[in-house]
Amino acid sequence: MNALTTLVQSLGIAYASGISPYATVALAGIADRMGWIDSLPGALGGLSHPVVIVLASVLTVIEFLATLIPGLASVWETIHTAIRPPAASALAVLTAWNGDPALIVVAALLGGGLGLVTHTTKLGVRYTIDTSPEPITNGAANIAELGVVATIAYFLWNHPYVTLALAIALLVLLLLAVRTAWKAARRAIRATFGRSEEPAAG
User: What distances in angstroms separate CA 144 from CA 20, 71, 125, 162, 164, one per listed residue?
Assistant: First the structure.
């Protein structure tokens, strides 16, 4: 496997980890253990250990349930600002582990950065969704996120370039959607408070 392919795979798994490191580890580990994909590269083979899969799966379930609850979902996402980017960087390093030391450093830096961007975008989406006082939209978002992570965990190893390109395209669309939503929210807030501050007639 050439260095560029390894780097792309590193970035792909970092991207998925920016959404959920727990689901990324669980799904990639299951796929490897079940033989649905070729052996995971670098030092990622450890993901298929039963203890790792069980722990990651339990954390994935906890995350799914926590983010169903309005209010708690935003708190959970905020706390994971300190978890997802480092996890993304670590998984990128493990992917490139058997490569050149320079490749490992590049994978760590770019993987952490991409994980941060992915997480930040998800954070904006979650803050927007969390304004709704019901769990249905949060549940739909959870399922969509798991679908993205599962797709990456399965296709990244055989079609790394296409998978990463589609993932980044999705990220750009989400960034634009979040930006539009926040602009609309700001306009609505200004309009509401602007009217309330107008002096009463007479």
Answer: 12, 20, 12, 19, 17
